[in-house]
Automatic annotation (TrEMBL):
Binding site for Mg(2+): 33, 104
Stated name of the protein: Endonuclease V
CC terms in the record's Gene Ontology section: cytoplasm
InterPro entries: Endonuclease-V
Length: 217
C-alpha cells in the first residue's frame, strides 16, 4: 500500500474520532502494550498484552497475551499499520472488556489526527486514551515538577494533548484523546491510575510482556 493511501486512511479515521465523554461507567481500565522479537526486522514475531485493573484499587482483575507475526515495516507516524492487527487479535480474545483502554502511543496528537490509540478506539468503538512516553507532535511548555502538573500540547493554535507529570520530578507522559473521551477526563484518569511515571494498566502490561519473553528465551 502506498504512503498516500495510508495517509488517507488516517485522515478518514480522524474524522470519526469522538473527543467528548461518551460512556456510562468507568470501573475498569485496560492497558495494552506490544513487544517485538526483533524491532528492526520485518516480518518479526511479536506479542501484545493487556492488563485490566480496577480503578479504585489499581489491582489487576484480568490479563492476557497473544503472539503473532508482524509484517509491516516500521515507518514513523504509521505505527498503527504495524501494531494494530495484533492488538485487534488480542481485543477479540479477551474475555473481559474494560471500560477504557490505555494505549502505549498517540491518539489525536498525531500529524493526521489519528495515532494508534485513535485507530484502536475507532476500529473497536472503544473508549481509548493515548499515553505515550515521548512526544511525536506539537509544542508545549514544560509543566511544573509536582505530580498532577500539566501543560497543553498544541499545534497551530489547537490543543492536541497534554504533557502530564504523573510523579514528582519525573519525566512527564504525553496524553491525548484516543476515542469517545474528553482530554480533561483522559488527564484525570491517567493521573488517577498512576503510582509511578507510567500508569498502572500499561506499566503492568509491559511487565507481563517482559515475563513472557524471559520464559521463552
Amino acid at each position: 500500500m502506498e504512503i498516500e493511501e495510508l495517509k488517507k486512511i488516517q485522515q478518514e479515521c480522524a474524522k470519526k474520532v469522538i473527543q467528548r465523554d461518551d460512556f456510562e461507567k468507568l470501573i475498569t481500565v485496560g492497558g495494552i502494550d506490544l513487544t517485538f522479537e526483533d524491532i528492526k526486522s520485518n516480518p518479526t514475531k511479536a506479542w501484545a498484552s493487556i492488563v485490566i485493573v480496577d480503578i479504585n484499587t489499581l489491582k489487576p482483575v484480568y490479563e492476557d497475551v497473544v503472539e503473532g507475526l508482524v509484517d509491516f515495516p516500521y515507518i514513523p507516524t504509521f505505527l498503527a499499520f504495524r501494531e494494530l492487527p495484533l492488538m485487534l487479535e488480542l481485543y477479540q480474545k479477551i474475555k473481559i472488556k474494560p471500560d477504557v483502554y490505555f494505549i502505549d502511543g498517540q491518539g489525536v496528537a498525531h500529524p493526521r489526527g489519528c495515532g494508534i490509540a485513535s485507530h484502536f478506539g475507532v476500529a473497536t468503538n472503544s473508549v481509548s486514551i493515548g499515553v505515550a512516553k515521548t512526544k511525536l507532535f506539537g509544542y508545549y511548555k514544560e509543566p511544573e515538577e509536582k505530580r498532577g502538573s500539566y501543560s497543553y500540547l498544541t499545534y497551530k493554535g489547537s490543543i492536541v494533548g497534554a504533557v502530564l507529570r504523573t510523579k514528582d520530578r519525573t519525566e512527564p507522559v504525553y496524553v491525548s484523546v484516543g476515542h469517545r473521551i474528553s482530554l480533561k477526563k483522559a488527564i484525570e484518569l491517567v493521573l488517577r491510575t498512576s503510582i509511578y511515571r507510567i500508569p498502572e494498566p500499561t506499566r503492568l502490561a509491559h511487565n507481563l510482556l517482559q515475563k513472557v519473553r524471559k520464559r521463552l528465551y
